[in-house]
Amino acid sequence: MSDVTEILTDYSKDVKAVIEDYLSSIDPEDLQKSSVYLTEAGGKMLRPALTLLSSQAVGGNREDALKTAAAFEMIHTFSLIHDDIMDDDDMRRGKPSVHTVWGEPLAILAGDTLFSKAFGLVITSKEDNISADRVAESLAVVADACVKICEGQALDMGFEGNFDVQEEEYMEMIFKKTAALIAGACKAGAIVGGADSEVIDAMYEYGRLIGLAFQIQDDYLDVISDEKDLGKPVGSDIVEGKMTLMVVKALSEANEEDKEKLVKILSDPESPQEDVDIAIDLFNKYGSIEYAHDVALSNVNKAKEILNILPNSSSKDALALLADFVIERKS
Amino acid sequence: MSDVTEILTDYSKDVKAVIEDYLSSIDPEDLQKSSVYLTEAGGKMLRPALTLLSSQAVGGNREDALKTAAAFEMIHTFSLIHDDIMDDDDMRRGKPSVHTVWGEPLAILAGDTLFSKAFGLVITSKEDNISADRVAESLAVVADACVKICEGQALDMGFEGNFDVQEEEYMEMIFKKTAALIAGACKAGAIVGGADSEVIDAMYEYGRLIGLAFQIQDDYLDVISDEKDLGKPVGSDIVEGKMTLMVVKALSEANEEDKEKLVKILSDPESPQEDVDIAIDLFNKYGSIEYAHDVALSNVNKAKEILNILPNSSSKDALALLADFVIERKS
Predict the structure, then answer these.
(1) What is the domain partition of chain A in residue ranges?
(2) What does CATH list as the number for A2-328?
(3) Pick from A27, A108, A131: which is nearest to B108 by CB?
(4) How far apart are CA A62 and CA A272, in angstroms?
(5) Between A and B, how many CB-CB pairs are < 8 A?
(6) Do A126 and B119 count as a contact with CB atoms less than 8 A apart?
(7) pTM, whole model, 2 decimals?
(8) ipTM reported for the complex, 2 dp
(9) CA-based nearest distance B296→chain A, Å
């Protein structure tokens, strides 16, 4: 794990510098500050690291992929800002969320600005020996991921209060909401690194698989962690009635009585801790926590197999480590 | 004027078809419907017409510029959806606004989706004999216009309650908020039409000038129209305390007593009609209505002069007609 932390820290410094520099010209000042705020607050910077490593793993130059990598972090940040408005979340990265500090109108604009700037940044990678064809190809990847993020968030909102969601629908939702951007980050890295189309597609699939595992692990941690590691109360997804693979699995396996009990708890936005514990007991009774972990693990293993298409290199090793990290992290 | 209506109607049919087709694949259904809603509601489609005419005027093919043209309309629509949320406007194009129908969270997403799709659409123009270099160049224009729209909206919000705004600051705000996208639509048309850089820059300048005139005319109509033509009460900008060139001019010319009177009316969100009439009288007293009209007219005349760089053609004539239309329209 410390290897992974080193990798992420190494890349995140460069990426942060590119983003902060590129956003510095925004005017007026409150729009500039609200746009750069979450980047200054930190974050794992997993997506840009994946772009940079994917590019290097196919023989590309680290410097040349930096702008495209930074753009993926900016798209991620844009989606966090807008999601926090939609979900009315007050906190993000240990700080008050953007709309909590600057109000909703400016937070909407800060997200829109990051979005616009991200596309602009990918285009400027033309200055870095990337051909116009490859720039257009990476832009298509970014645009496609952005559409999917919106669709995924809309699907997720549509799941609210719907307790008949099937596993396939759930997987489609998290693919769009979470995995598509991670997959896009890997694919765009391979594109700007100069890979052929077979490798480009393989890197998308690697990213899709670890992206799905990433989201399942997020939901899993909400149930199995302690509050100290998690930085928020255990089981808060249950209180919020959020759809997770564990909920989908438990509801599909439970008898009528248990199903009713679970739906009641998930429907109550004021569920006390004892109800949360009952829900977790039901997850355990139907093996859904273990099931979620197994699905995540299986995706990670498949993702690592895909990496065999790449020649051996330290970047390839780092991509395998990041795949493991996705389901080994504690927060 | 009927010529202009014919031109706009002719182009808008094609553009609408491209947009509706391109948005039809969005899933889930409520996101699809909310994204396409304002396009179905109609609108002048001035921006895509400018892209198509600019492309044709430099020797380009109408079909090849269609996707880029449609993208500019989608960016315009995205900004309307988010602006209506920020300004809490209930109506748009004679229908309830998107957030009024679907709620704020889905309206934010519908805007984001249109935004993402617009970039995707410009990229697909690669299929239409547009070189990757020119596609990347038009995308840079779109991204730049989007950043400016956000900056302009933030500047406009920052003007609220600030009665020391100078004419230069006001012009910078409307350039970013309104004129930059119109200028971008013209520039991108010239790019995909294959123009050289001198003509490309000239088309941006033409668009910038008519874009400024467009916004000034919008504000002017609010004061000089009758309610029937305008589709909303005359002087509603005054009630809302909106910054306009007339306000900026009147405040800079007025004596202390009149200035105080005007600030008081602009600061009162419940101003009765008699106060609105007093404000309009003050505009007249200091010649600010005529001044605004003169500035708009002068911009239009300069814009038409710029068109001399183009060879004679019916598209060039149409661009001159559209410049006049911007300040001759009644709504």
Answers:
(1) 2-328
(2) 1.10.600.10
(3) A108
(4) 50
(5) 139
(6) no
(7) 0.96
(8) 0.95
(9) 25
